[in-house]
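Give me the fold.
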Amino acid sequence: MKDITRILKRPLVTEKGTMLREDGNKVIFSVAPDANKIEIKKAVEELFGVHVEDVRTMNMKGKAKRWGHRNYERSDWKKAIVTLKAGESIEFYEGV
């Protein structure tokens, strides 16, 4: 298995993510593009000490941007929605 810190890049704190956390006990992470669902599940369980029920992943296409007269494209990235077992939560989200 790959290093945990290379699989989970950062948590995504958005309005939609906050609603998912409150209603469905789900947490959203930005993950490595080559990480699979099994690696993501093991990384979250080991790093935060919680039990994971389900992992959903999606590949996000980088947006085309413009800076002055130059066009460029942001990098593609991967997002994971992790469903935790009922009654469990991840501590760093509690203060947000």
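The CA atoms of residues 42 and 52 lie 8 Å apart.
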